[in-house]
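Reagents: none. Just compute today. AEC family transporter.
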Amino acid sequence: MNQLVFLSLLPVVLLIAIGFIAGRAGWIRTVAVKDLSNLIFLMLTPALLFRTMSHVRIEQLDFKPVAAYFLAVMLLFAGTLAVQGFNRRGAVLALAATFSNTVMIGIAMVSLMYGPQGLVILLTLVSVHALVLLTSATLVLELAVVQEQKQQGTLDGPGVAPRHAVTTVLTALKNAVLHPVPLPIIVGLLFAQTGWVMPAVIDKPLELLANAFGPLALVLVGVTLAFTPVGRHWRQALALAAVKNLLHPLLVLGLCYLLGVGGLPMVVMVVASALPIGANVFLFSQRYKVAEELVTASVVVSTALAMVTLTLVLLLVGKIA
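Predicted 3D structure written out:
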């Protein structure tokens, strides 16, 4: 099992290391990172997700593992809010403790380790991961903003527009669906239900784009690490990374056991929960202007720490599965 874990993680580690070296050496400059990110998220990601799900019938999908995953997320999110307090900082840190990098690292890693069957299980989670978590986080953050404004006496004051929870939820829901991750999954699933066969002239370019996703996504992770300073927040970042990388998968593992989820679905859910903090958390911290440096440092530490923690988690589930 040790050799299997090593051989599975080695390509991931090497690709990230290549990206890190390229960034440090100046082969890829900071100005190019945004363009690389757009290439991956707006072209390669939709191609991979649509092509994978275009062969999957809805009756083949199993949402029981996803239920175990999100139950763990709810417990951890609520627990973080209880410790940090119901405010913008608490909400952003709760999102950081529960939001995995399921796309850039997760899809590439699970595809390499478990093949198409494991990828379908992961994409079942990915299809609702951003939708549920980002919508929930947006609602909590907006409510926290309202509460802070009430405490400061600025709610509905001059120049301050009232915030309506229903509008907030609907807007967040629309933004989460019209996104380069959930949308191609939904379209791919709808196409699969028709029973049609993708013409080769369309399928082949999609296949080439999809095959390029994994290596480029992991290289971009390394490039991003090369340009992101950890700074004075490393202790707090390490604590938050430990919660995300270790406590989160342990909760998912326990709930999978209680709900009778085993085999490959359990393994994929635990691996998904052990993935480092996703970049969307940083975008939320920027948008709401809270804990920006801490979240940036946490993403870096969580990603670097994942090299060790993912190995430990894989060894653990390998003995149980």
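The domain at 2-320 is CATH 1.20.1530 (Na+/H+ antiporter like fold).
Action item: order primers for follow-up constructs.
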